[in-house]
Amino acid sequence: MKKRDNMIVVGIGAAFVFAIFAISYLYNPTPEITTPEQDAQMLGFKAEIIRTEADLRELEKLAYEYEIAYRHSYNGAKAMYFKSLVEPIMIAAGDRREAIRAEEDILAAAQHNFNQKLQDIDEAWTMPLGTDEEILQMIAQNEDSIIALEAEIAELQARKEQLGEEAWSGPSGSLDQKCLEEIGKVEANIKKCVASIEKFERKIEIIKLACRLQRGEEPVAEVAVDVECDCGDCCEESVEEIL
Amino acid sequence: MKRLFIMLCAAAAMVGCAEKGSQVVISDQNPENEAYNISGELAYKVVEAQSYEEFKRARVELEKYEEAFRNQIGGEAYLIYLEECNYIFEEL
């Protein structure tokens, strides 16, 4: 009776160990290797059809699995030989993906421009326009904001340079962490100012576009400037300046 | 009841056909050339619109083709379509 119990326990244990092996095998299947040349060729075919980042990662994982399989089934030398065959294929695959990424970036930029321009034209058509004076005032306000932001950027740049000098002048000659953090904050503020300038510039562009679309021309301002006459005397003349 | 059912089926089929008819289909034969021609034609309509209503109509048409080139063709022809439109928008 006792002997039968022992056999049952051993049987259950063996079944358990087998189940664990089976599960681990199913979760980490090792690829079936043929010859290094054939496997490298197969990876080469797969490398030619990659499109996305995920495809490239998948290929890299597969190449690594093959390399491990060669190491386990044969020896390190075989694995190294396989790796030497696959390496140029992986470099070519990386270059291919890089080229595709560059194309995707160009396409994304073109799409952004397309949508942005249509939105700008829509905004320009629906923008309520007042008198010429009011429009000029709006443009001037935006230009003043740009000038103020440019001055702020100049101040921030000076502060950044000062912090840069302070960061290196620590007692031990090492970089001051506090100064570096401060520089990071200043850089973030500069970026914000640049973004705001772009926003104001876009507003001015839309106002001018609205004038061109709705009225057929941009507003003109009358400004007084000194003009040198032939006689040598200076006289004041009124001229029109297109903004 | 049977007549009503047949009429409903006919109406559904007509609506289906109309839907399909309004969809833009881009030909596989030389889509790059088609992208050049259509983008030029439609983008100029947007740029030369004389009223907001006219602009809106032109925009709908332009975006319909943009979607068609994106979903049906993609790649080089779609990029040509977008770049050609962007180039014409610069005239404004």
Summarize the structure.
Chain A is mainly α and 243 residues long.
Task: Reconstruct the topology from this structure.
The complex is a heterodimer of chains A (243) and B (92).
Chain A: H1 2-27, H2 36-47, H3 53-73, H4 76-126, H5 132-168, H6 177-215, E1 220-228, E2 234-242
Antiparallel strand pairs in A: 1-2
Helix pairs in contact in A: 2-3, 2-4, 3-4, 4-6, 5-6
Chain B: H1 2-22, H2 31-47, H3 52-73, H4 75-89
Structural commentary:
The complex is a heterodimer of chains A (243) and B (92). In chain A, 77% of the residues lie in helices and 7% in strands. In chain A, 10% of the residues are buried. Chain A has six helices and two strands, in the order ααααααββ. In chain A, strands 1-2 form a two-stranded antiparallel sheet. The longest helix of chain A has 51 residues, at 76-126. Chain A is mainly alpha-helical and 243 residues long. In chain A, α2 runs antiparallel to α3, α3 (53-73) runs antiparallel to α4 (76-126) and α4 (76-126) packs across α6 (177-215). Chain B has 92 residues and is an all-alpha fold. Chain B is built from four helices and no strands. The longest helix of chain B has 22 residues, at 52-73. Chain B starts with a helix and ends with a helix. In chain B, 22% of the residues are buried. The model of chain B has no long low-confidence stretch (mean pLDDT 84). The interface between A and B is medium-sized, with 16 and 15 residues.
